[in-house]
Design goal:
Number of helices: 5
Largest sheet: none
Helix content: over 70%
Structural class: mainly alpha
Distance between the termini: 43 Å
Order of helices and strands: HHHHH
Length: about 130
Amino acid sequence: MLALGTLRRECWRESRAKPLAERVRGLIYAFLFAPIVVLIVFSFNASRRNFVWQGFTLDWYPRLLANQDLLDALAVTLQVAAIAVVASTVLGSLLGLGLARLRFRGSGATETLILLPMVTRRSSWASAC
């Protein structure tokens, strides 16, 4: 019965901590995404300087799409992203197949190094920085 009482106390503590953790998580997300939302909203501002809202406009987007240098940079970025996706998929698949099917010297250490980021608590990563 002592173990059951201890378990109930632990569950009670966790149930009280969850709303607080959810609020903190929400505040962190708001802090991280607020600048992005402000940037998107002010991209529709009619003012040349984005400090004061002077009205709604879509005039900046045709200018953006008419800038050839930006479009060239976007094309290069998308090409690099596509190459990185294909290369990482191929290498990850080959590594997964190799680790699952082959046993070699150091395979245990390799698996440990691959799984280490998933098992290490995030708090220890944060304290290391």
